[in-house]
Amino acid sequence: MNEANSGGGQIRQYALRPKNPVRAWVLAAAGLIIGIATLSLGLSGETTNVVLVVVGVVLTAFGLILGIAALAFISNRTLYVVLSPEGFEVSGPGYHKSGSWIDVDAVSATPDGARLVIGSGHIERTFIQAPGGVANDQMKALTEDIAARLRALESE
Fold first, then answer.
1. How far apart are CA 142 and CA 129, in angstroms?
2. Is the distance from CB of 113 to CB of 143 less than 8 angstroms?
């Protein structure tokens, strides 16, 4: 979470990221290491062992592709939320909503806190969901921050 002072209030930025795919990273690293070792064994010596070279290339390619897929998963599933004294902005993969605090009629959350809905008027809704559907510390801090901003707006 980043904070910056902006005149009469704070701007806070939240990045709701999914859990790190540790299993994918381990499999990618193992594929790369075993693939490169197999490839070097196949190419060493006086004669080239074609079977070891093919297996090494396949395992190396598997490790690279899985590593790139894990990296893309994390970067494409991140939801960014910016809260300012004037309003909010939510953006993520294929989703961008913004609004002013003065226009917010209601805010509701699921009982477990994994999903938050900001309502403006009868139709406009902004949805914020914790990655993986599980409320983490970042999601709880975001919910508390929104509640505090709305309480401050009501007391004015």
1. 11
2. yes
